[in-house]
Every structure is written in structure tokens, then in C-alpha cells.
Design a protein that fits this description.
The complex is a heterodimer. Chain A is mostly helical. Chain A has one domain: Cytochrome C3. Chain A has 8 helices and 2 strands; from the N terminus they run αββααααααα. By secondary structure, chain B is of the alpha+beta class. Chain B folds into 2 domains: about 70 residues, no CATH class; about 220 residues, Alpha-Beta Plaits (2-Layer Sandwich), CATH 3.30.70. Chain B contains 9 helices and 9 strands. In chain B, the strands form 4 sheets. In chain B, strands 8-1-9 form a 3-stranded mixed sheet. A two-stranded antiparallel sheet of chain B has the order 2-3. Chain B has a two-stranded antiparallel ribbon with strand order 4-5. In chain B, strand 6 and strand 7 form a beta hairpin. Chains A and B meet through helix 6 and helix 8 of A and helix 2, helix 5, strand 8 and helix 6 of B. The structure holds iron/sulfur cluster (3 copies). One iron/sulfur cluster (SF4) binds next to helix 2 and strand 3 of chain B.
Chain lengths: ~180, ~300
């Protein structure tokens, strides 16, 4: 109930803020965001994640995941040196900045620019996992692979688990004596 | 028998010895200036990021077509396995293993992936008297199993205990270790399979020189998070795979007493004794070979005798 009320309140505030500052077109609020997000552009060994965005807006602020984007003023003193108003703060989606092909020849070549500051920007897969797992470790959220993903057939094959599990070897100790 | 170990073979052995000594001398004089290929690639392993998911192990097994593991790669009981009081090690069926380290005072355990570190001046290479090893300009330390005689010198020389052997038969030893996915990936500029599989980018692939900059930047941007040292930047003359850690490196099983100089220099000192070994080994192997082919040899000898007659 309470969260629902909060939701309406935020919604109202969001609408309100839009009325008051219509020029801030890039500005976004948690309530403008979709309730769930399918994060699956990379899925291979594991299926994508049904990310409950609405739930997470209740426990984390936007910039904890989206850095400086989505409406909040850039405040990080390190970022603001360049990014007070350079446009990057308009993008919301992780993949707008984080490459899905981080170690390709092409991407590695970009690092050769001697003026480049962001020489260590994680690729998309790492951006997701470092963000999620990092917080989950601190906040006691789930951290196991299959807590968030379902493993695919390709995944079972690579991990040699499930129907691709190795046959139990004779005399390999415990395991085969569960019931009598 | 002693005389039948034959002048021919003895001379052959002696020649092999001389060749090996010459080769070693050459590479040791080069060592003064050689500090690795400038554009060599590497991997920066950040232990603060590794979550011990073993994806890298699974990917390596698949990429290198290694035999099936005893337990699935999503079985984490392997972290409790001990062999002779030691954590898991790489071997001929596991080019890489991840181990868990419970560090006192840390809330979470740390995990470290082990594989060949692809040294800039590899001791395995310099110690090998049949030149089975090559350091490629891309940074990989690869080997030619066909010339390997199974003497295990590289096993003893490697400061990280990496090379292991597969004995499919006593006369066909085959050295086995991580090859940085050279054949299938690195030579085409692609990242190794383990790097690609890692969800956390605990493994960062790039030019070794860039990786050092990246490591430094991580230290600067997160003060206090890391030990102020990139393990492998200087150890044993530098390695292509390097490590960042939040705890002293010996707490995660890395040898912190390794010299900064390449092991080669020590091998060089050691060489005072080696030439004798070098002349003995080939003779010994020639002897083995002779035993194995004695029948043919006897036949030839008889033929020779007939010819002489
Ligand atoms: S880690 Fe060992 S096997 Fe690998 S290159 Fe260095 S000396 Fe050779
Ligand atoms: S670089 Fe290739 S061979 Fe070496 S551990 Fe990674 S996947 Fe295995
Ligand atoms: S895949 Fe990455 S995070 Fe997982 S165990 Fe290997 S190095 Fe660690």
C-alpha cells in the first residue's frame, strides 16, 4: 500500500516537475522509467534478466546505477570537469556507453588515443555485473549466477552441468551413497 | 653395451649439447636488451572483481578441447579440495584453475585464477635445450610438443609451477599448459576464451603497456582499494598476465619473493654446471632411443657387416 502511495506521489512529482521545467527534456525520474527491463542483449550461456526496475528504484537512487545520467545534475567532482554539459548525461541505457565488444581489435585500437581519459571503461557485460554484483554483495542481495539467470543449453554444455554433467567416476568418494 | 652406445650416437649427443649451449648463450646475450615485445598483449587480473564463478575454467576447457572435468564447472565444492596440503593446481587437463582464499579480516573470500603468466623472458623457454618454446610477438608463450623430449627442465625452471606433462607413452611426452589461446584467438587479435567468458571483467585483455596504465588508474581513482603494486609488472622480468589485489599478494598465494630479474639470469649462472648435464641428457635419450630401436639397429649392423664383407 505504502509503496503504491509513494509511487503515485513520485508520479505526481514527476509530472509536476515536467510542468515546471519543460525545457529539461532530458530529465528523467524513476517513475518515468519502465517497471521492468529485459536485460538480454548478450545472453548466450545464460538467459537474460527480468530486471525489476520499479523495485530497485525504491532501494537505490538513480545515479547509483546510471552514474550521472537521468536528470540528476552531474555532481561527481571528477566527472563534472568534462561532463557538466557534454550530452553523455542524456543517455540512460548502459549500452549507450559500454561496448558489447570491449576487447575487439576495433575497441582496443580506440585506447591508443593518447588523450583518452576513459581507458578503463568496462564492457557492457562487466558494466552490468560489476554494478549489480557489487551492490548485491554489500547489500546482501543474491549473487549466484542462477539467482538472476536461467542457464541455457549452451551454458549447460560449456559448464558441463545438467544433462552435460560428467558421469560420476567410480570410487570418486562421496555422492553415490545417498539412500539405502 | 658401453661401446655399443656408439660413437655415432655419442657424437650426435655431443652435437646436440653444443647446439643447445650455443642457443642458450645467444639468448642470454640478447637478454641484456630484450624486455619483451613492445606491442605484446596481456591480461590484467583484478582479484577485487573475481567472484569465483569458474566461467573462465569452463570456457578454457571448451576452447582447448580438454577432457571432461571430474565435477561440473558450476560445482563450487572444488574450492575445498586439497592435494597434499595444497590448493588446486593447473595440470594437463586443466590449463587454468580458480582457487578461493579466505583472508583474515575480509568479509568475503577472494578468488584467484591461475594459468601460465606468459613471462616476458620465460624461464621455461630459456631452460629448454631443444627450444620447444616460443614467445610470440603477440605475447603468448607457446610450445612445440613434437620436439619436447619430456626432460621436465621447464617444469623446474618455471617460477609459477605451470608446465605439466602428459605421458601418453614413455617415448611421447607432451608438455601441456595455457597457450593464451594463441592458435584459435590471440594470433587473430581476439581475446582468450577465459577473458571473454568472465562476467566481471576480472580479466582485462589489452596491450601489456596499456594494462599497466589501467592498473595505475584504478589505484588512483579508488584510493586505498588496492595494494600499491601490479604483480607481474616487474616480477621475473615482467609477465604478460598481471594481478591487482586488495590484500598483500602472498595472502592470495602469489610468491612475493621472486626476483625482479628474469629467471634466465639465474639459469645463466647455473649454466656453469649445465653443459655437463646437457651432454649427458642427449646421450641418455640417445640410449633410450637405441634401446627402443635395438632390433632395427642390430639388423642395420648386420647389414653393414654384410656390406663390409
Ligand atoms: S609462467 Fe612458467 S610456463 Fe608460463 S611463460 Fe612463465 S616460465 Fe613459462
Ligand atoms: S588463455 Fe586460453 S588457454 Fe589460457 S587459461 Fe585462458 S582460455 Fe585457457
Ligand atoms: S570468470 Fe572471471 S569472475 Fe569468474 S572465476 Fe573466472 S576470473 Fe573470476
Amino acid at each position: 500500500m505504502c509503496t503504491r502511495k509513494m509511487y503515485h506521489l513520485t508520479m505526481a512529482m514527476a509530472v509536476g516537475s515536467m510542468l515546471f521545467w519543460p525545457q529539461a527534456g532530458w530529465s528523467m525520474d524513476a517513475a518515468d522509467a519502465p517497471e521492468t527491463v529485459e536485460i538480454n542483449s548478450l545472453s548466450k550461456s545464460y538467459g537474460g534478466v527480468h530486471f525489476d526496475h520499479a523495485m530497485h528504484t525504491g532501494i537505490a537512487s538513480c545515479e547509483q546505477c546510471h552514474h550521472h545520467t537521468t536528470g540528476a545534475e552531474v555532481t561527481n567532482s571528477n566527472c563534472i570537469r568534462c561532463h557538466a554539459k557534454t550530452g553523455e548525461e542524456d543517455s540512460v541505457s548502459c549500452k549507450d556507453c559500454h561496448s558489447s565488444d570491449r576487447f575487439s581489435k576495433k575497441d582496443l585500437l580506440k585506447l591508443e588515443d593518447p588523450k583518452l581519459y576513459h581507458i578503463d571503461k568496462p564492457g557492457l557485460k562487466a558494466a552490468y555485473h560489476l554494478n549489480c554484483v557489487g551492490c548485491h554483495q554489500k547489500a546482501g542481495g543474491p549473487t549466484g549466477c542462477q539467482d538472476c539467470h536461467t542457464i541455457t543449453e549452451a551454458g549447460e554444455k560449456m559448464f558441463q552441468t545438467g544433462k552435460f554433467a560428467p558421469a560420476p567416476t567410480a570410487g570418486s568418494g562421496h555422492g553415490g551413497h545417498s539412500s539405502h | 653395451m658401453k661401446t655399443t652406445v656408439s660413437r655415432r650416437n655419442f657424437i650426435k649427443g655431443g652435437l646436440a649439447g653444443t647446439v643447445a649451449v650455443t642457443a642458450l648463450k645467444e639468448s642470454s646475450s640478447q637478454a641484456a636488451t630484450f624486455e619483451g615485445y613492445p606491442d605484446g598483449m596481456g591480461v590484467l587480473v583484478d582479484l577485487t572483481r573475481c567472484v569465483g564463478c569458474r566461467s573462465c575454467e569452463a570456457a578454457c576447457n571448451q576452447e582447448q578441447k580438454l577432457p571432461p572435468p571430474e565435477k561440473p564447472f558450476d560445482d563450487f565444492s572444488v574450492f575445498d579440495e586439497m592435494m597434499h596440503g595444497q590448493k588446486r593446481r593447473t595440470d594437463e587437463t586443466h590449463y587454468t584453475v580458480v582457487n578461493r582464499y579466505d583472508v583474515p579480516g575480509l568479509e568475503h573470500p577472494l578468488f584467484r585464477k591461475i594459468q601460465c603468466n606468459h613471462c616476458q623472458e620465460p624461464a621455461c623457454l630459456t631452460s629448454c635445450f631443444v627450444n620447444a618454446y616460443t614467445k610470440t610477438p603477440e605475447g603468448a608463450v607457446i610450445y612445440n610438443p613434437n620436439v619436447c623430449v619430456g626432460c621436465r627442465t621447464c617444469m623446474i625452471a618455471c617460477p609459477f609451477y605451470i608446465p605439466t606433462f602428459k605421458y601418453s607413452s614413455a617415448f611421447n611426452p607432451r608438455i601441456m599448459k595455457c597457450i593464451f589461446c594463441y592458435d584459435t584467438r590471440l594470433k587473430d587479435g581476439k581475446p582468450p576464451a577465459c577473458v571473454e567468458a568472465c562476467p566481471q571483467e576480472a580479466l582485462t585483455f589489452g596491450k601489456r603497456n596499456d594494462l599497466i596504465k589501467i592498473g595505475r588508474q584504478r589505484m588512483v581513482e579508488t584510493p586505498g582499494k588496492y595494494e600499491d603494486h601490479i604483480y607481474g609488472e616487474h616480477e621475473v622480468g615482467g609477465t604478460a598476465w598481471m594481478y591487482l589485489s586488495s590484500v598483500p599478494f602472498d595472502k592470495v598465494g602469489l610468491d612475493t619473493h621472486l626476483p625482479k630479474e628474469p629467471i634466465l639470469n639465474f639459469v645463466k649462472d647455473f649454466l656453469g654446471i649445465v653443459p655437463m648435464v646437457l651432454t649427458i641428457w642427449p646421450a641418455l635419450f640417445a640410449g633410450f632411443h637405441l634401446l627402443a630401436t635395438r632390433k632395427d639397429w642390430l639388423k642395420n649392423k648386420n647389414d653393414d657387416a654384410h656390406e663390409e664383407e
